[in-house]
Specification:
By secondary structure, this protein is of the alpha/beta class. The protein has a 7-stranded mixed sheet with strand order 4-10-9-8-7-5-6, sandwiched between helices. Strands 11, 12, 13, 15 and 16 form a 5-stranded antiparallel sheet that branches. The radius of gyration is 21 Å and the shape is globular. The protein folds into 2 domains: about 5-60 and about 330-440, Aspartate Aminotransferase, domain 1 (Alpha-Beta Complex), CATH 3.90.1150.10; about 65-325, 3-Layer(aba) Sandwich (Aspartate Aminotransferase, domain 2), CATH 3.40.640.10. It has 13 helices and 16 strands. Helix 7 (about 185-200) packs parallel to helix 8 (about 225-235), helix 11 packs parallel to helix 13 (about 420-440) and helix 12 (about 390-400) packs across helix 13.
């Protein structure tokens, strides 16, 4: 058996990581996954309470997806995107069926950043405008265009692209306007209208949102927010671009998060749950009016990638979507989400360091504060990559056999959609213990 310490040091020496100080990294080496659990090389089992990076929606071993990849690999592993393939055609058709409204034609990529890069280019090509409005607390990817849209501490390390204007967030717990819902008049949405008017409607190609902000806090908008953005975009002839990379594919108890508000975006990007993370795939789907535009002579679809429409990825996505349907995973996520919500609210009552819990379905955040009255956070955005209380909480939880993601001042609780009440209770018992760490630091 290969020694875990040896593999850990070997990877640290030869492989760069993501968003970390290399000298501080001391990872568990995982070798196997099954259901809602992963197992280390040394044999220790961990409950995955965050679906890794909120992407392992169908669990860590889906035989149906594995078999689909193997069958496709026996036939055709790769085709240049100038060719058509059966899995790409079928996946495009399937995405048109399961997405809301008249979203109908997709560009198929290798992940979420690339899906958002395609969305940027499509929006600019279609509208002939250049500016895009995104929000300060957002994450849209690590490539140049996607990270330019991102409002996140990580942007200080990258040079993005011009033409991005940021708007304040729909963050009711810490309203940037100092107001309280419902008497706020949804100022966060109305301010987007003001931004477009001041920038010039003729210059704004689109407004880019995560319908529920993911890694920047699990920010759930008021019910009026997304419909109002749809109205604003329509008034100013700007596109509404919906980043469902993290919130899509059943995560919130709907196939796509934006369906909670009955809104159809003009462009939707997706990844992560499209294959349950069993294979790297993303997609950018557009409404029919955009597809019609590029069907006109002279309107070049000026975008492409070597691995676009990858046959293995498309086969994996088709099989994963079939798993969602056959096992009623979206409906199960909605039902288990109510169980999780109840348990998290019990934690909030029991622990004075919990400022707020918020979410939908199986997509929840626990925001920790030193003082409930002042809402002083344990971790600020500038301290995100430094040693801090939340990192310590996650580390102790890991020692106790539960993996939970911490980002800035939030613990993200987002188990796979196949989770059971027993597994939720197992995770909550550990969270109940580790929150004693932050309770001791409350002012």
């Amino acid at each position: 058996m290969v020694n875990e310490d040896y593999i850990r040091e070997l990877e640290k020496k030869h492989v760069y990581g993501t968003w970390r100080y290399e000298h501080t990294w001391n990872p568990v080496v995982i070798e196997e996954g099954e259901g809602c659990y992963v197992t280390s090389l040394s044999g220790k089992r961990y409950l995955d309470l965050s679906s890794q990076l909120m992407c392992s929606n169908i669990g860590h071993h889906s035989q149906a997806v594995i078999d689909a990849i193997a069958r496709q690999a026996e036939k055709l592993c790769y085709a240049a995107p100038g060719f058509a393939t059966v899995p790409a055609a079928l996946l495009g058709q399937k995405l048109a069926e399961i997405t809301p409204g008249d979203l109908n034609k997709s560009f198929l990529t290798n992940g979420g950043s690339e899906a958002n890069e395609a969305a940027i280019k499509i929006a600019r090509l279609y509208t002939g405008k250049t500016k895009l409005i995104s929000r300060y607390r957002s994450y849209h990817g690590a490539s140049s265009g996607a990270i330019a849209l991102t409002g996140d501490p990580r942007t200080q390390y990258a040079i993005g692209m011009p033409g991005v204007v940021r708007a304040p967030d729909c963050y009711c717990y810490r309203c940037p306007f100092g107001k309280e819902y419902p008497g706020c008049g949804i100022t966060c949405a109305e301010y987007v209208d003001e931004i477009i008017r001041m920038e010039g409607p003729g210059t704004v190609a689109g407004v880019v949102i995560e319908p529920i902000v993911g890694s920047n806090g699990i920010l759930v908008p008021p019910d009026e927010y997304v419909p109002r953005l749809r109205e604003i975009c329509d008034e100013h002839e700007a596109l509404l671009i919906d980043d469902e990379v993290m919130a899509g594919f059943g995560r919130t108890g709907k196939m796509f998060c934006i369906e909670h508000w009955g809104v159809v975006p003009d462009i939707m990007s997706m990844a992560k749950g499209i294959t349950g993370a069993l294979f790297p795939v993303g997609a950018t789907i557009t409404r029919q009016k955009i597809a019609d535009h590029f069907d006109q002579p002279g309107n070049l679809f000026s975008h492409g990638q070597t691995y676009a429409m990858h046959p293995l990825g498309c086969a994996a996505a088709l099989a994963a979507i079939q798993e969602y349907e056959d096992k009623n995973l979206v409906e199960k996520a909605a039902a288990m989400g109510k169980v999780l919500e109840g348990r998290l609210n019990e934690l909030a009552e029991a622990h004075k360091s919990v400022g707020e819990v918020r979410g939908k379905g199986l997509f929840w955040g626990i925001e920790l504060v030193k003082d409930r009255g002042t809402k002083e956070p344990f971790v600020t955005r500038k301290q995100k990559f430094e040693p801090n209380t939340l990192k310590r909480i996650s580390a102790v939880a890991m020692e106790m056999g539960v993996y939970v993601v911490n980002i800035i001042n939030i613990l993200i609780v987002a188990p796979p959609l196949i989770t059971t009440e027993t597994e939720i209770d197992e995770g909550i018992r550990v969270l109940d213990k580790v929150l004693e760490i932050s309770d001791k630091e409350v002012v």
